[in-house]
Amino acid sequence: xxxxxxxxxxxxxxxxxxxxxxxxxxxxxxxxxxxxxxxxxxxxxxxxxxxxxxxxxxxxxxxxxxxxxxxxxxxxxxxxxxxxxxxxxxxxxxxxxxxxxxxxxxxxxxxxxxxxxxxxxxxxxxxxxxxxxxxxxxxxxxxxxxxxxxxxxxxxxxxxxxxxxxxxxxxxxxxxxxxxxxx
Length: 183
Known about the structure:
The chain is built from 5 helices and 4 strands. By secondary structure, the chain is mainly α. The protein is rod-shaped.
């Protein structure tokens, strides 16, 4: 006869094989019930916490879903563009200030009296002179044979023309895109 441990409060004693099977079944059911009770008692708070967390995630998602998070490449491009704009403004402003300090006006390159292809000479307003400058810059760029430094010079010249045209109240010429004009 086997000797087995019987639940608390009961002494150890010899039992028959039938009694042992019955006792094993009883202990097995008790373990299953304890496991189920433990699982439920820990699962309910965990599910409640998960529910609150899930609700918080849904609320956050509803607010954040429309926000576009830029990629590192987009951020780098934006920083580079902003830095380039600042540098170009400084170059144009300092260059203009230096020219004015030396007694030169920030005038258009195109002269007041302009000879047309027909040979006729016309007098151009300042806005027309700036527009002619912008067209000449665009023609050089469109030829496509500018070096890197010439491309930078063309961009700076275009920005200078735009600043002066805006300062003098001129309209945007066709040679300057809306994006350039509004930048």
